[in-house]
Design a protein that fits this description.
Elements (H helix, E strand, L loop, with lengths): L10 H12 L10 E3 L8 H6 L5 E3 L9 H15 L2
Parallel strand pairs: 1-2
Length: 83
């Protein structure tokens, strides 16, 4: 789960978390990216290239009022990632 501070919502935060955890890890690990809908949709392709292991979508966030907009967001992310 992307419950890190700062959240892995962009490449800079992702690399910051990787560097922080690599200094402490005794095992291999992977980090999830976070999809915040329109707030970081432009970051999704870059996070994918940075090697996140997946994306967590927060569907119950107050950041996006209409559930129907999430379906649109998911479709856009699928197109970005060519899934």
């Amino acid at each position: 789960m992307p419950n890190t501070n700062p959240p892995a919502s962009n490449v800079d935060n992702f690399h910051s978390q990787v560097a922080h955890l690599q200094s402490k890890a005794f095992v291999d690990f992977g980090l999830w990216g976070i999809c915040l809908g329109r707030l970081n949709l432009k970051e999704i392709a870059a996070l994918d290239k940075a090697a996140v292991i997946g994306f967590n979508f927060f569907l119950a966030t107050p950041l996006i009022a209409k559930p129907s907009s999430w379906f649109t967001t998911i479709k856009l992310v699928r197109r970005i990632l060519l899934i």
